[in-house]
UniProtKB/TrEMBL annotation:
Domain GGDEF, residue spans: 215-343
Source organism of this protein record: Deinococcus seoulensis
Superkingdom of origin: Bacteria
Protein known as: GGDEF domain-containing protein
Gene3D superfamilies xref list: 3.30.70.270
SUPFAM superfamilies to which the protein is assigned, alphabetical: Nucleotide cyclase
TM stretches of this protein: 15-32, 38-57, 64-85, 91-113, 120-139, 151-171
Keywords: Membrane, Transmembrane, Transmembrane helix
Length: 363
């Protein structure tokens, strides 16, 4: 089980502490209804328990989020029931005006805490509960003309619009991230199998980045080991699935500022920025081990990588060619290796060959 980071736990603990402080201040200094006098202490105990649970690393944060959100919704729906069915008509608007905005805040918090997909059931539960209470009130009090009905309807409408806007913004952000990651908007067409930019698009990226700031620029050419033999054994359909699998695995580690593309049937290329040649090689070593640890249909895929780091190269073509030459060199000697280009060979000691079983360098 992957545990949540300590930073996330600390952040959640602080947020719960702020919520708990606000509840305590309300109980101490603000007027409360009979419902609040009974329900607020219970809600405060729930928040205190959730805050304390953040110290227990075996309790997932998602469980704490669901617990606190369900507790808060129980309190809000109970408050709405109290306003609609227990508060005198002349006091309903004033009472609801202080509670209504928190329904919208609760709806917004689902996406913040649970994400786009996991928040949907809680959205339905919360807004469905508000709608059910409203319909019950309308059925028992003679229609839709009451001002309190209008206020609750506006709260529901605002919540729905907020949800639609949130989900639209998330989808647009994810789309932009994917477009940028895949080189969207770059000149040239994309590879139909992987969706990655083709050689022309990557060459344009490299030329633009080289002109902007060549220092720290690295090129890594990733070659599939023995793709021809795999095609003879398993067929063209399998090797195409294998290349698509390789692109997905590689995309899983590509940073936002890096660009990944496809050179040919058995090669990918990545343009990235690193502090030095050692960091460029370490990044490719981690990628090599990651790929080797993710077989497809029982077949272990390995890659060799040629890396070039800018070191007074006269133009981007020289950097590109060095990375390709490094790949050809390493694949002619062995497989499942990472090799630096000739510009760094004299200053970087080649690690001992462990027969393709090198350990990934620490992240």
């Amino acid at each position: 089980m992957v545990r949540d980071s300590l930073d996330r736990r600390t952040l959640n603990r602080r947020l719960l502490g702020v919520v708990l402080l606000a509840l305590l201040l309300k109980m101490l200094y603000l007027p409360m209804s009979s419902f609040e006098r009974a329900a607020l202490p219970l809600l405060a105990l729930l928040m205190a328990g959730a805050a304390a649970s953040t110290y227990n690393v075996t309790v997932p944060l998602r469980t704490l989020h669901l617990t606190t959100l369900l507790g808060a919704w129980t309190y809000l729906l109970g408050s709405l029931w109290f306003v609609l069915f227990r508060v005198p008509t002349e006091l309903q608007l004033a009472t609801l005006s202080g509670m209504g905005p928190w329904i919208t805040v609760m709806v917004a918090s689902h996406l913040w805490l649970l994400g786009r997909q996991d928040s949907v059931p809680l959205n339905v539960l919360g807004l469905g509960g508000v709608t059910a209470l409203l319909l019950t009130y309308v059925a028992g009090h003679g229609g839709w003309t009451s001002p309190i009905v209008g206020m609750v309807l506006q709260t529901l409408l605002a919540s729905v619009i907020l949800l639609a806007g949130q989900h639209s913004a998330v989808l647009r952000t994810l789309g932009n991230m994917r477009r940028d990651l895949l080189g969207g908007g770059l000149p040239g067409e994309h590879d139909p199998l992987t969706g990655l930019p083709n050689r022309h698009g990557i060459e344009d990226v490299l030329a633009r980045e080289f002109q902007r700031r060549p220092e720290g620029l690295s090129v890594a050419v990733i070659g599939v080991d023995g793709l021809g033999a795999l095609q003879e054994q398993y067929g063209l359909g399998f090797t195409e699935r294998l290349v698509a699998h390789l692109s997905r695995v590689t995309l899983g580690v590509v940073r936002d500022q890096d660009v990944l593309g496809r050179l040919g049937p058995d090669q990918l290329v990545m343009v990235m920025r690193t502090p030095d040649a050692r960091a460029a090689r370490a990044a490719c070593e981690r990628l090599r081990v990651r790929i080797a640890s993710r077989p497809l249909e029982g077949v272990n895929l390995t890659v060799s990588v040629g890396v070039a780091f800018h070191a007074e190269h006269p133009d981007p073509e020289a950097l590109w060619q060095e990375a390709q030459d490094a790949l050809v060199s390493v694949q002619s000697r062995s497989q499942n290796r990472v090799a630096l280009g000739v510009w760094q060979e004299a200053s970087y000691e080649e690690p001992q060959d462990l027969g393709g079983a090198q350990q990934a360098l620490p992240a």
